[in-house]
Amino acid sequence: DISPLLKDPVAFRTLIDLLEDHVRASFPKIDFIVGECLDSRGFLLGTPLAQRLGVGFVPVRKKGKLPGATESISYSLEYGKAELEIQSDAVEPGQKVVIVDDLLATGGTMCAACELLKRLKAEVLECLVVIELKGLKGSEKLNSTPFHSLLQYD
């Protein structure tokens, strides 16, 4: 739960500083931050990070939440099925993106977001999260996509 971080302006600024430092050190050239969010927490982290980096922000949302033509994917969650969408013109082929979210659990949502971006022929540089629940082995589902978490819990 990142609610305490969001409530505290110093803690939230520190979190965005850590994410920014990691992305700047790891990727000298990036076009977009992608906020992967069924519950909108990826927006809360991705938009200030994109602004700090001077790049655009691209949302990946629940089906039916984005205007215009979209690309969608259905995937399994631990409690059922869900669908994610991205606008069809959100990125151009070859553009470099980092996908950001608050938490990686089983990895289903993050994998779906990666697949959507690959369909648009974007280059996914990394999946970046604040918290990783290692015992659920979600990062293993990402296959060859680079992954980084700030905090890990067993």
Features:
154 residues, alpha/beta, Rossmann fold, seven-stranded mixed sheet, 4 helices, 31% helix, glycosyltransferase, PRTase-like, acetylation, EC 2.4.2.7, cytoplasm
Tally of discrete structural domains: 1
Mean pLDDT: 94
Helix and strand element order? HHEHEEEEHEE
> What is the top-level CATH class?
Alpha Beta
How does this model look, in words?
Helix 2 (about 10-25) crosses helix 3. The mean pLDDT is about 95. A seven-stranded mixed sheet has the order 3-4-2-1-5-6-7, with helices on both faces. The chain has one domain (about 1-60, about 75-150): Rossmann fold, CATH 3.40.50.2020. The chain has helices at about 5, 10-25, 40-55, 110-120, and strands spanning about 30-35, 55-60, 70-75, 80-85, 95-105, 125-135, 145-154. The protein is globular. It contains four helices and seven strands; from the N terminus they run ααβαββββαββ. The protein is of the alpha/beta class and about 150 residues long. InterPro entries: PRTase-like, PRTase_dom, UPRTase/APRTase. It is an enzyme of class 2 (transferase). Pathway: Purine metabolism; AMP biosynthesis via salvage pathway; AMP from adenine: step 1/1. GO terms for molecular function: adenine binding; adenine phosphoribosyltransferase activity; AMP binding. This is Adenine phosphoribosyltransferase.
